[in-house]
Amino acid sequence: MVDLAGTLKHLPRTGDLYETPIDPTQISTDPTEVIDFEWDTEKVEVIKKDEPAARHPYQADLQAESSGTTSKDGAEEKDYDFSNTVQDWIDFSYSRYHPRSINIIERYTHSKEESQLDTITNGAELWKDYDFQDELTDRVRQYIEECDGCQGFQMLFDCCDGFSGIAIKLLEHLQDEYGKSSLLFPVLPPKASVFKNADDAMSDSIRVINTALTFAQLPEYCSLFVPLSTMGRCWRKVGEPRSLPNVVYDPSNFYQTSAILASFLETATLRYRLKTVATGTGSYLSGMCTDLSAYGRKMAAAGFVFPFPLGDTQDLIDCLDQREGKSLTVQLTPNVNVRNRAVVQSVCARGLPQNRLKRPPTAKSAQRQQIMPAYRCSNVSEMLQFFYSCSLEVSMSHVTSVHAPMTIRQPFPVELFDKRVGYDGFLTDCPLAQASLQYVQSCSALAAVQSSSDIGDGLEALHREVSRIRLPKIPRFAECGLEEADYKETVERLLEFKENYDENYEL
């Protein structure tokens, strides 16, 4: 993890996994109590540091729970109103961090009003700080040495600011040092970033340049990358939030939108994270990246359905039959709309029970289902595979399915689901089922990583936007060493990358 100074608030940089740091409020500042010094304590000037950052009530309860002063059940029943009280990710983070996990950039300070680490060139310049570079790469090396069977690397990073420069430099190091597969998820925020000393128009231009330069360089160093956003458009103008059926969220609320993206990641990565997955190279990270990056198409799109639209008394075969001719997933990649032809995809489903697959042959209600070709399918993966083979033309789908649903509990935003979603995550119109529990307890989901010629439309739109910008009008890029000739060459590489998605490369 790499973040800016001031983000961690109460969390020490060494994490809090193994020991509880000293509370600064318990350290005496009275000179008369300092007895280990030989000089005259009356002449010592005492400088009192700022008060420690206040903890979010959820973090305070987690601390009390870890010290044994409160019960876990009591904390889980509280309503923390996260949507309105969360300011940063640290406020709702449940994870405890290892001493090697957190890397802080001292040169820039976190601010909610404007971003200081603004350009991809600033991020690349940070890599020239050998202390920062050595510490980060050394920690990566220690984690790799502890790994019994490293498949590769999965990286999540902000795409529109200077973090993209750090990500590319780190990715280049990982490729040179280890040569493993790498799957990247560049994230574009649901509302436009404001950069230091820049108005809205200039901030939009900076964001477009950062994104274009990132997308142009990633194919050289990574195996596959999947841009993520809850917005339909994210190049110059950010707008048109994606509409997920049976989910109600505030498109400008980072706490809620990050939960949707996290749910996608938790589901889409099951293919190479399962221990009991079927043998074969296709089940590993390298196999997934190879399947989806043919013809140099190293950018893929994200599709997600959450919750899965299965009724509480419905069988999967009937649910899929009703979806004929309709897209099952909603795109979570901006400026992309994957249609139903020539799609290569990796699909992961969770929480679809085997006993809800179809009616048993002996049941009277099975007569209608038995005439369907899908009735011959014996498990969830097989039925989803058959569904995609019928609904997508000239396509290939790799389907992974697990029975366990996503567990919904704090700090997840339980308010996301509308009233049609029952406590078990399935759709219901029964008022008694809706009122049986206050919140949804578990939820089914399906995530797809898709490669298609339609992705070229988004790349072309990005190239068109960045071509309109004159680099000399934004001197902050040149101040960090970006020459206009190099800039034009990189933008041209983006157009060449887009050509991999033209129809003459189609399967």
From TrEMBL:
Gene3D superfamilies xref list: Tubulin/FtsZ, GTPase domain
Regions that span the bilayer: none
Region feature (Disordered): 50-78
GO cellular component: mitochondrion
Biological processes per GO annotation: mitochondrion organization
Residue ranges of domain DML1/Misato tubulin in the record: 83-274
A Pfam family recorded for this sequence: Tubulin_3
InterPro entries: DML1/Misato (IPR049942), DML1/Misato_tubulin (IPR029209), Tubulin/FtsZ_GTPase_sf (IPR036525)
Protein name per its UniProtKB record: DML1/Misato tubulin domain-containing protein
